[in-house]
Amino acid sequence: MTPAETPTGPKSLLAQRFRGFLPVVLDLETAGFNARTDALLEVSAVILNMDEQGTLYPEETHSFHIEPFEGANIEQSALDFIGVDLESPERDAWPEEIALPELFRQIRRAIKLHSCTRAIMVAHNAHFDLGFINAAVNRCGLKRNPFHPFSCMDTATLSGLAYGQTVLAKACQTAGIAFDNSAAHSAEYDAEKTAELFCGIVNRWRDLGGWPLMPLQTETDTPTDE
Questions:
Q1: For residue 59, is pLDDT > 60?
Q2: What percent of the chain has pLDDT over 70?
Q3: Model confidence over 19-31: pLDDT tens digits?
Q4: Is residue 226 predicted with pLDDT exceeding 90?
Q5: Which strand (E) or helix (H) includes residue 27?
Q6: 41, 29 in Cβ contact below 8 A?
Q7: Confidence of residue 1 (pLDDT cuts 50, 70, 90)
Q8: In which element (H, E) is residue 10 found?
Q9: How buried is 130 (Cβ within 10 angstroms: 0-12 exposed, 13-18 middle, 19+ buried)?
Q10: Is 152 helix (H, G, I), strand (E, B) or coil?
Q11: What is the pLDDT of residue 4?
């Protein structure tokens, strides 16, 4: 079996690019900073795809408003910051034990479509989001979490390398991605902007010769007229 194949057939270009992992861009809004005690309020995931030229792009977004779990801590300052009204009749919130399995089902479908082994979370300050997802998975007793349990890709780090910026809004602006600060702190908006940022960095690296990996040229490799 070659590295570009799986037991069920050839890997997609996307699977080859990320060693069998499917990158899924995630953003959450929460009622605090403690993943074990504070409520998860919004979750949005952007599933990516790759064309025949190896260009990565956002394909579809799945978003849910989440009902705070029973006994959850809710910091009013967090609600004020993200602009969430838990009593709004238009919020259409789902219990996390229903929303997360539905989100995971969509992610597993994409994993299968691209012949990947599992998903890897991409997020801005990713370990924060991964911690909240893992806590919710444990709280709900979910058995089929598609995400790698501890590895993730952090666009704060990547944009620090690529653009010298670690704040999402500033990184997007430096990358030439329009960013509306009045729309920020919505999980869906931030997830979609993070996806644009991640795809831009990956595609720029490809354009610079970073993938497929090209061997470093040494002096002995330099063409001469002799």
A1: yes
A2: 89
A3: 999 999 999 999 9
A4: no
A5: strand 21-30
A6: yes
A7: very low
A8: strand 9-10
A9: buried
A10: strand
A11: 45
Taking CB atoms within 8 Å and a gap of at least 24, the contacts of 108-114 are 108/144, 108/146, 110/22, 110/24, 110/47, 111/22, 111/146, 113/12, 114/11, 114/12, 114/14, 114/15, 114/22
Percent of the chain with pLDDT over 90: 84
Sign of CA dihedral 18, 160, 27, 34: positive
Q: What is the DSSP string of 37-68?
A: TBPEEEEEEEEEEE-TT--EEEEEEEEEEEEP
- Token pair belonging to 75: 């910091």
Q: How far apart are CA 210 and CA 202, in angstroms?
A: 9
Give one word for 54, left, alpha or beta, with left for phi > 0 and alpha for psi -120 to 50: left
Contact by Cβ (8 Å): 26, 43? yes
Q: Which two tokens stand for residue 182?
A: 């009045």
- Indicate the pLDDT class of residue 216, thresholds 50, 70 and 90: low
pLDDT the model gives residue 215: 59
Q: 64 Cβ partners below 8 Å, 6+ apart? A: 42, 43, 44, 93, 94, 99, 102, 103
Q: Which two tokens stand for residue 216?
A: 């470093």
The Cα–Cα gap between 197 and 209 comes to 19
Active site residues: 185
- What would the two tokens of residue 10 be? 């050839």
Compute the CA torsion angle 132, 135, 139, 145 (nearest 10 deg).
Answer: 90
